[in-house]
Amino acid sequence: MASPPREQWSSRYGFMMAAVGSAVGLGNMWRFSYLTAENGGAAFVVLYLAITWLVGLPVLLAELVLGRGSQKSPIRALAHFGGDSWKPLGFVFVAAGFLILSYYSVIAGWTVRYALSGVFLGFDPDAGAHFVRVASGWDAFGFHIAFMMGTILIVARGVSGGIERTAMVLMPALFAIVIGLALYAATLDGSSGGYAYYLNTDFGKLSELDVWKAAAGQAFFSLSLGMGAMLTFASYLGRDTDLPQEAVIIAVADVGIAFIAGLVVFPMIYALNLSSDVGESTVGALFITLPKAFAEMGAVGRGVGGLFFVALVVGALTSAISLLEVVVATGIDGLGWTRRKAAIVFGTAIAILGIPSAWSTDILGAVDEVANNIFLLGGGLALSIFVGWVMTDPEAEVGSSGLVWLAIWRNLLRFAVPLFLGFVLYFAIPSTWETLVALF
Ligand code: TRP
Fold first, then answer.
1. What is the pLDDT of the chain when averaged over all its residues?
2. What is the pLDDT of residues 137-152, one digit of tens each?
3. Ligand 1 mean position to 220 CA, how many Å?
4. What is the pLDDT of residue 110?
5. Which residues have CB under 6 Å of ligand 1?
6. What domain range includes position 203?
7. For residue 412, is pLDDT > 80?
């Protein structure tokens, strides 16, 4: 059977927006802000930035090289460069895509609901009780399904017609909203306490292993690394792209939006005297404390809060698209399915897999922990070994860029990255196991 020619991005800019869209999402706003609050403010931020550049960026370039070089979805890309014995790792990647999207879509559903109800009904001043009502059960399930349907529709329309077009419209809007909100937050009386809290540095925290684990997991999650999402997107790229340059742009945009999101969240919370609420619950900063702040702002809060949640919906949607695309590309390449069929069948399966997460936020939290601490960090470890040691001459697939940088890159992948990830995993595995045991 002759397969149709492989889809391609229609422009370099389009790929960039789609890749940045994958990276920038709930991770930048929801996860980043609560992890920062939990792990000692700026000390965590500095650690997260260091890991992003020294560990995340090399792995990101490794994924781009594997995808662009093979022009294939993850399982076949690994087989292309490493032989069939590497296929199981590709299956793990696809499984991670299923797992992550299944709960990611539940949280995305909350953001859709908050955006709609914030704008049309106003935010509930009793935000804690409101969150408990809508975060699990039928409500959460309904919005989860609706969000998955939107994701399926876009992915079914194809790489350039669906994914690229959506990202090109939505990503600039997201940037504008987040920057605008950060500027607005700066004008609020009392916001300075928020900056002090956010940018305060408790270096003592750096001696805690939990902080390292959280920062490493966050760096991988936020850059969409460790399960072949960036690999899959790069497989639709032509020969002429400068991959290191793309990788740097993606990483800068990703940490930039996370940092600016912090400049929205913390000053607003402090300006409204809600700082004692932060850190009470992991999801608190975003879905409880901020809506409370928006409710107190009255009519302005509906506008500001509505925009905030619209930005979250946008980020979540462009990220969810990339997660589904990993699975769909595998269905197209590996099973010979049409894109439409793959999107509908796999999207529906993921929607069903998300039911437990929609039923209980404890289950959701545990799935998040397993996905990040085990699948993504483990996937990153395997990828660095693969490109560092197994693949012959990955430098040749990179394209341009100086020889010195290429040598540094390869050596990071060979030594520093696997050592670091191995170290983090060594501590992450038992604690994740404990979380799972506590669930039952
Ligand atoms: N990076 C996204 C975020 O920050 C989430 C995401 C999208 C993701 N695709 C991924 C995470 C692939 C891990 C792997 O919200």
1. 93
2. 999 999 999 999 999 9
3. 8
4. 96
5. 22-23, 25-28, 100, 221-222, 224, 227, 229, 319, 322-323, 376
6. 13-439
7. yes
Is there a domain that residue 338 lies in? yes
Q: What's at 195, amino acid-wise?
A: Y
Q: pLDDT tens for residues 6-57?
A: 899 999 999 999 999 999 999 998 889 888 888 878 889 999 999 999 999 9
Of 30, 34, 100, best ligand 1 pocket probe by most atoms within 8 Å of the beta carbon = 100
Domain assignment present for 29: yes
Q: Identify which of 74, 90, 67 has the alpha carbon closest to the alpha carbon of residue 234.
A: 67
Residue 5 confidence (pLDDT): 79
> What DSSP state is assigned to residue 54?
I
Ligand 1 mutation pick, 30, 31, 224, max ligand atoms within 8 A of CB: 224
User: Residue 59 in 3-state DSSP?
Assistant: helix
Stretch 210-238: mean pLDDT, rounded? 95
Non-local (6+) Cβ contacts of 414 within 8 A are: 384, 388, 389
> 98 near 135, Cβ under 8 Å?
no
Is the model's pLDDT at 107 over the cut of 90?
yes
Å from CA of 279 to ligand 1 middle: 23
Gap from CA of 196 to ligand 1 centroid (Å): 29
Domain count, the chain: 1
CA–CA dist 207, 213 (Å, integer): 12
Which pLDDT score, from 0 to 100, does residue 1 have? Answer: 47
| Closest ligand 1 atom number to CA of residue 254 | 4
Q: What value does the CA radius of gyration of the chain take, rounded to a whole number of Å? A: 21
Residue 41 forms part of a structural domain: yes
Give the domain CATH number at 84: 1.10.4160
Residue 199: pLDDT over 60:
yes
Please tell me the distance between residue 2's alpha carbon and the centre of ligand 1 in angstroms. Answer: 33
Ligand 1 pocket test target in 33, 101, 222 with most atoms within 8 Å of CB: 222
1 part of a folded domain = no
The overall longest dimension of the chain from CA atoms, in Å, is 67
